[in-house]
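Support reply, case 0932

Customer input (verbatim):
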Amino acid sequence: MSNEFLRSLMSEQRRRLVGSVLEHAENNLYQRMSSEEQRAFREKVLTSVGVFYDFMLDAVKASVNDGSVMNEEALVLLRDLHALSLKEKVS
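Our regenerated output:
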């Protein structure tokens, strides 16, 4: 999957999640809340989903084409181990 496809998919899922939670709140919870509580609830939902969405975007940015996450430090260690094993074979 391409990063652009994943970003688009995540964006659509975020929109649906927020819509579903807020629709439920409007239909079942808001009548028992003050205007201030409604605003705070909406802000909390949007902020929480937004933080998770940003985290997932960062994960997509850090991924390689096959979707696995590339850890640069691990790659450096593997290269060092490989170089060391080649030196030991030569010795």
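We compared this against your earlier run and they match. Two observations from our side: The mean pLDDT is 84. The radius of gyration is 23 Å. Please reopen the case if you see a mismatch on your end.
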